[in-house]
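Meet my pick.
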Amino acid sequence: MSSTQISDDLWQHQDPTAARLSRRARRWLWLSALAALIVVFALPAAMHAGAFEPQVRATDDGWNGAFISPAGVSDFATSGGKVSSYVLGTLTIRNTGSSTVRVLDITVAGNGFRFDHAAVGASGSGLTLSAGSFPRTVTPRGTADFTLYFHITDCHAVSADPQLATIRVDSWRGIQTARVALPTVRHLQGGWTVTSPADPQGISSVRYLADAVCGIGMDPG
């Protein structure tokens, strides 16, 4: 059995730095590790802040509610109108993000009513019922009006608490859903005003429509 021996002269000519990474390679690895750490710590914070959630919110710019007659004519949803259990209410949303979104559809669920459909555009008392169809594109910082149609089935069962609409949107994030608050209103003599959900006399706009259908708390004049 034989063995090969390496002379001391050969060892002395070996480059001790030959297996080391270059300065550029070490810098690249260091920057890559730093970037990975930033992602690890920043991603949860961004998710917690809602950066990847649909950036749509309801506005308090106004509200309109109306009865819809069998002939399809709308009338103010206040006492003295041509009362119908088929009603509509408006909703305005704002795109608070920095990219365009497309609103694909809107639904509302709750007790005491059957949600019929949503349409693009604002229709209401004294207006023609000509709202359009989805989708609706909303640019950054822009707003869009929608009309929601309901059949009130049990006036007293409709909650007075703030209610939410489910909005399906499409953006660079993909198709997602957002929950936005429907307007909160307060009864006034012969009408209503938009108010804050924290207002102790405020009620959901759907409950206002239900009250109007059944004449609950409405001024008779």
In short: Confidence is low (pLDDT under 50) at residues 42-50.
